[in-house]
Specification:
three-stranded antiparallel β-sheet, elongated, Immunoglobulin-like, 37% strand, six-stranded mixed β-sheet
Length: 158
């Protein structure tokens, strides 16, 4: 029998090293983060008004490997005139430690209702974007995001 090549040796050694670390990683992934108080925060923001579906387009990748830098963009169908414009775009998540991730304040001089950023995602969850229009109405879009390696986990339960 011939001795294993250097490449095979490295692959086998890294496999053995990974198995010693794997149990804590698997445990961390299996611990699901609880739901936060997102519905209550949204109700407080809107004053209990109806949130309509449409006008808002939320773009997030459906699957991300790492929850630390997730690209997110939101656009709203609005003429952005003095009489009809977007006042704010709010983005919420149901499993991050804080439900409101980001708020973008806009006005008629913005030209178009669009915002993009990168966010941290604690776990697989729904993301909701709500646009507040100048006429007092609220419009939304929802996206489901699968996160394989969670972010926002400061401390794991024992």
């Amino acid at each position: 029998m011939t001795p294993p090549s250097r490449r095979k040796f490295l692959v086998l050694s890294s496999g053995i090293a990974a198995t010693t670390v794997l149990p804590s990683t698997v445990r961390a992934q299996m611990v699901r983060t609880p739901l936060n108080n997102m519905p209550e925060v949204i109700r407080k923001l809107t004053g209990g008004k109806t949130i309509n579906k449409g006008k808002v387009r939320l773009d997030v990748p459906p699957l991300v490997e790492n929850g630390h830098l997730v690209p997110l963009s939101v656009s709203v169908d609005s003429p952005m005139t003095e009489a009809d414009h977007v006042r704010a775009i709010h983005v919420f998540t149901e499993r991050n430690p804080l439900p409101e991730m980001v708020t973008f304040r806009l006005g008629p001089r913005a030209g178009r209702a669009f915002a993009a950023t990168r966010v941290r995602m604690a776990d697989t969850q729904n993301v909701i974007a709500i646009a507040e229009l100048s006429d007092g109405s609220y419009w939304s879009d929802t996206a489901f995001l699968i996160v394989t390696l969670a972010a926002c986990l400061e401390e794991l339960p024992a």
